[in-house]
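Technical appendix A lists one of the benchmark inputs used to test multi-chain prediction within the project. The record comprises two sequence entries:
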Amino acid sequence: MTDNVVLTVEGLSKHFGGVQAVRDLSFQVRAGEILGVIGPNGSGKTTMFHLITGFHRPDHGTVTFLGLDITGLPSHEVCARGLCRTFQVARPFPDITVHRNVLMGALLRHPDPAEAALRAGQVIRRVGLEAHTETPAGSLTTIDQRRLEVARALATEPKLVLLDETMAGLNATEVGEAIKLIATLRDQGLTVVVVEHVMRAVMSLSDRIVVLDQGTKIAEGKPQEIAEDPRVIQAYLGKEYRRA
Amino acid sequence: MRAALTPERYVPAGTLLFLLVLPFLLPNPFYVHIVVMMFTFVILGGAWNILSGYAGQLSLGHAAFFGTGAYVSMLLVNHYGTSPWITLWIGGFAALLLSLPVGFICFRLQGPYFTIATIGLAETLRLLVLHFREITNGAQGLTVPFKGNSPWQMQFDSKLPYYYIALVLAIAVLWITRCMEGVRLGHYLVAIGQNQEAAEALGINSAQAKRRALALSAFLTGVGGVFYAQYTYVIHPDSAFGLGHSIQIAMVAIMGGVGTVLGPALGAIIMEFFIQSTQIVFAGQYPGLELMVYGGLLVAVILWRPRGVFPWFDRLYRGLIARLPSPGRAA
């Protein structure tokens, strides 16, 4: 059971002033799965990502990645160990091309820029950005900026990626494309954690789902169990979702 | 197999050739002096550009590294008779050593701390140099006694040798910048300048990259300081460590175009040209006027050409390359 665990979060807590953003949060991510994380706005999903990837230091708790304690490591080191995240609000390097953006990620494993450039090209094709290779990243559309976020993360050749609301603001067709992309990543052997508000995406993609509310885990299970859990329905999904 | 004679090759080669014969075309040594000053600012602006231009970490205290190089060299030359050819390296390394604690302390933080720290560093050094009069000769500064033509002491009757030394140093700085662009550090600095948090998320150790760039930048600035001291024979606390000097170094790169290899070279040419021509035109009638012109120029560039004159130059240059014949390329 525990031998195929990639990430273990145990007793994670963080407060900002008087606000308890994350409270005693524990869960595990298993190799090869897609774990969905859902919860109302302000329930601590992004803070959780920040705590895992070293952007914030937790007050309490530990983060164990591939058997090693990575709690409080600087974010670049977390990434170097194979755990990469994207940002909810895309943070492209705006003035340089899409290709060079992705190259920055590829340089982590391939210090030779020529080799990294080849890898970057492959990743760009993988996420379907090849038409925009030479476009300055700042002038991409929303969906392409999200694609770029994912591409840059993939270029670091992670074992686990944390995708923070990759689908926010996308239209129905685009959500479909994004779902397909993330499913492909899993099929290629990557382990993925997705934070999402788009229920259609979370339900269809996730092998398991963790539900947060006010910084605490209120439920964890298979998508169907979650959809039927009364606490989840009350806190987040709403009665309509049960009928649907 | 004969290398094709394309404009991409013969234009830079022609430029280099022109620079090699330029001092013989200039009517008198004063003009040679102006070009030497341009080269000096290519060195300084180019060195500044490595960290502040590529990684967007604004330093307004590069005079600290310049002055360290200049003073260390002067003291060694005067007290021990060390050859400036050797102090060129020692001065550079002294500036590099000075940069280490700055990089170590400041790059853990983001925001304006680095800028403020660099200003503080230069100002502290200026006051220290004023205070330790027995060693530094205080506000009067240090001079190198002229010993006549003595190449080993980097002293020459003519300005020509200085011209070529400055040219070599300036080209070296630009060449180092170009090499840096091609390796991982160069890319990482650009990423950091664009968005440091995103860079960190991609595994880029931004503090380390900035420390390395600062060390290289400080070293080259220190070398520039040594050359300047040897060339002018005199160095003062104000001319070496003054805030105005730091700003001037930064301006060269900003006016030319930050984060580009040739930007500081363009900036140095423009700035030195303006400073000298205002001094000539107004011939000291209105003291401080050149500073006003220079300030006005600065505002104009930041308002209308925030990326410097480089993009404009780049278009012009590409247009020229495209129109020039390339005899070797004909099929």
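Chain A touches chain B at residues 53, 55, 74-77, 79-80, 84-87, 91-96, 100, 103-105, 107-108, 111-113, 116, 152-153, 155-156 (CB under 8 Å). The mean pLDDT of chain A is 90. Comparable benchmark entries are summarised in Table A2.
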